[in-house]
Amino acid sequence: MAEEDDAKIRILQSLRGKICEAKNLGPVSGQNRQRDLCTFCTISLDQEEVFRTKVFDKSGSPFYGEDFYFEIPRPFQFLSFYVYAKGVFQRDLPVGKVSIRKDDLCKYSGKEHWFSLQPVDPNSEVQGKVHLEMRLNEVITENGSIGQHLLVRIIECKELPLISGQNCDPYATVSLVGPARSDQKKTKVKKKTSNPCFEETFFFEVTRSSSYSKKSHFQVEEEDIEKLEIKVDLWNSENLAQDVFLGETRVPVKVLRNDLAHKAWYLLQPKGNGSKSKFDDLGSLRLKLTYIEDMVLPSSCYKPLCNLLLKSPDVKPISASAAHILGDICRERYEVVLPMVRLLLYHNRFVPFVSAVAALELDNTQEANTIFRGNSLATRCIDDMMKIVGKSYLAVTLKPVIDEICESNKTCEIDPIKLKEGDNVEVNKVNEIKLKYFRNTEVCILSINKPLCQQENLQGYVQKVFSSITQSSSSCPPLMCDVFRSLRQLACKRFPGDPHVQYSAVSSFVFLRFFAVAVLSPHSFQLRSHHPDPEISRTLTLISKTIQTLGSWGSLSKKLSSFKETYMYDFFKSFQEEKCIEKVKKFLDEISSNISKESSGLEDAVVLKEGEVQKRTQGKKRLGKKNFKKRWLRVTNKELTYHKHKGKEAICIINVKNIRAVEKLDESAFNRKNMFQVVHSEKPLYVQAGNCVEASEWLEILGQVSRCNEGRLATFHPSNYTGGAWQCCKSQSSSAPGCKPCTTTMLANLQLDIDCDREAERLFSYLSSNDVKLHNMEDACASMAVYQGPQREPEEYSKFTIQEPKETFQTLKQLRNIMEELQRQHNIRSDTTAQYGSLDNPIVGRTS
């Protein structure tokens, strides 16, 4: 049973952060030297690019502002950020890079740091690991003397990098290096593979003896052992160009001093001498990084913690519940609330919990106009809920108009101070028509077709956004409506004499914290793939400000003189005649009415993922390489489609109910990495993702959307059918059952993308890191329960919400017991670390 539990342990890695900005970027060689550069940034796991920003206009200090998040599906050694200068008629030129070892990522977690850019040296761009075996063998020469030969066997390599997007043609050189010798030998070249199997053995003469010795083991001289080492270099064979260095490792021969045999995996290392040379100042890059590695235990380990958290809505008072305590002790860490919200959502316990927490907050709110204004546990929970549940709602409501704003690039500045030279807010049609008296007719027409004025541009965009929002009530997710209805009722109960509070309680979330924020930062809500340009960001800022004001219907009853900016006062006057207040009230009534909406989550197609891939369908041509073409792949909760380009009609449509398996494809099938297959009612669809992160995301989403399908396969073929046989099992029947068991898809909520075990592990991690605060809260409860006089709480006690000390103390005690047991389970499994020198824990060899 223990072995079965260990098999279910998952090591999950994720990276979240932001590429903020660069400063004083240095010149690059070539024609771009000494000029401002159009630059972009990339993120790489070792040498595999997994993220790229858009290109930014000429600037030596560009502001990127690009957020990123991705799961890391494989082991890695370095996380690297590259800055490139965009080439017009030539390839992109590297400006510099920031490389951080995986073990050092924790030093920078959660905070912004400036990193100096280092030069991009080809000899330092390495990835992969090599499996070596070394032995000392005695040999007797023809004249009867005895000597020793060093046997070096190159077994195989794993995870070598792609070269120009394709598998490499690797070979290895093996050298015995010493003060006065350097003997080198070479393996054969392996074609088109990142995991070459060499299985080649080389012999080196280590030392000689002038006479025969009867000793059972010939002892190599001490000085030779100390000075000799085996050096293994991996190269990519280039037919018409210089071979590309892939990495090296160095193993001292003295590892055989106590044992005549040594066999281990080694990480490939860069050539150390390249990084020691001096280089010009290339500038710096500001990054914010949060790397998380979770060891997720079997589900049974987390049941006590989950059960305690899920009882929270029923605990009286709510402040004594486990969920409220967690939010209380981790209030400075905003990310702590997210896994708790996910768990409550998955188990349908969110609405009663957030209603109880909101009621507690309202009890401490003295004025109606300050309702839900702070960054409290209630507001943080609802914020996270809206981001999770309302993702498709935002896409349907805002994405079309956001795309129009970003792609049309109209000027919308109305602040006179920020106008560019030549711009004028008051430019109007009459002034342009006057041009016909001074210029020819053709010029006049061109002039009339220009935007009439920035203010009208902004008014048009605001009207579109506002109308999209106020007409979207039917698309609002039922769960959001349930929360808004509860907030409205609680606010009316707390402030029965205020007619406006029932609306401000809802608008403070749906307008101020949801729609306005999404307009301001569309890339953060997956409405755009990249951070918008500064001019478009300014337009979105102005629209967001206006939407906030229009949405806060209570503020519309105030005088317009309450605006701080005069230009906003003048701009906003035009909206008074549009009866915006009535439209807002009608919208808020519809999304928070007493009529419960039935869920329609699966009635409309929701886009789960889309992107560019390389696609090949089984059996069209004999030569598979020519069959790979770029296609736009798109999966919704209803169908999987691929298109010639984004926005074009679908070439092929596969109903997700017909998907029978989604599995990885062996690299050897087509000599390509990051491939997966979709097995459906017709021939398999073979797809190559852009990188390991993309491949992992496709596999997870397609696996989830088809998990409950009837007719799911139990086995699959990890390779392709060609030459009359499956390459994996050599079965000659194209319809032969698979030779490998299908992957068991983890149970998760597809619409909400929730992995309960992982969320519980995150909560355990946060609780463990705040153990001192838990102790302080226990002390505070004990002090309050024993001492019945006037409360004289220490400063740290006042940070906790303790209404019933005894109830709170009992919950804390249960949390403590659960944490101790979880820690014990972690300790048991942490003792089974992979042996140093194994494939999972390779040796970090010396560099030159």
Spatial order of the strands forming the largest sheet: 20-19-18-17-23-22-21
The stretches of 5 or more residues where confidence is low (pLDDT under 50) are 1-6, 208-223, 427-452, 554-561, 598-603, 620-625
End-to-end C-alpha gap: 47 Å
Q: In what range is the share of β-strand residues?
A: 15-25%
Oligomeric status of the shown chains?
A: single chain
Mean pLDDT: 81
CATH T-level topology of the largest domain: GTPase Activation - p120GAP, domain 1
> Main β-sheet, in a few words?
7 strands, antiparallel
Q: What is the number of helical segments per DSSP (H or I, 4+ residues)?
A: 22
The count of domains is 5
What is the general shape? globular
CATH class placement of the largest domain? Mainly Alpha
According to DSSP, the number of beta strands is: 28
Category by helix and strand content: alpha+beta
Indicate the radius of gyration in whole angstroms.
Answer: 32 Å
Q: Kindly report the name of the CATH homologous superfamily of the largest domain.
A: GTPase Activation - p120gap, domain 1
Q: What helical percentage do the residues reach?
A: 25-40%
State the CATH architecture of the largest domain.
Orthogonal Bundle
Protein name: Ras GTPase-activating protein 2
InterPro entries: C2_dom, C2_domain_sf, PH-like_dom_sf, PH_domain, Ras_GTPase, RasGAP_CS, RasGAP_dom, Rho_GTPase_activation_prot
GO molecular function: GTPase activator activity; zinc ion binding
Pfam families: BTK (PF00779), C2 (PF00168), PH (PF00169), RasGAP (PF00616)
